[in-house]
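[09:14] KT: can someone run the structure on this one? pasting the chain below
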Amino acid sequence: MRRDVKPLYRRVNTRTHGVFHGFGRKAKWDRNTKAAFTDQSMRGKMYKKHRHGLDYTPLFQFLISKVGGDWDAVHSEAVGRLDREEPIYWLVAKSKEAGRPFVRIGESSYVSGLYIDEDNRLAFVDPDLTVEKMKPLCPCCTHTFNGKRFTQSYASSD
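[09:31] RB: done, structure tokens below
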């Protein structure tokens, strides 16, 4: 990777005391039980399945800024600035039918869904979706859509 181009991800702190990022704590107790000998999933090596400590918010902002651009050029630039290709397809679908209007990233962050149109251009799945139309799911979190706070307040369904 060239040094003059910033990567499209950033590292976040995973060493903070009391912060657990989904690390399995139960497996150490189940490993040497009788059930573990019949369950083949417990017999393998203990490789990491989750990649903690990476934030792809810059990638999502980059993809949204490139809407309307040629997909091949956008894809090649993004892949060159990432550690792996998979996070691109969290947002981008191959067709409009496979795409979603928005994608939930994290607990209360949402990003517009994208797809590759017939002309090989990057496009929004739902171009009419705005932050004003989004409603929060709970009263305790700060919900965001494409980096902007929701304008509607939480309304309980009681």
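[09:33] KT: thanks! The two ends are 53 Å apart (CA to CA).
[09:34] RB: yep, looked fine to me
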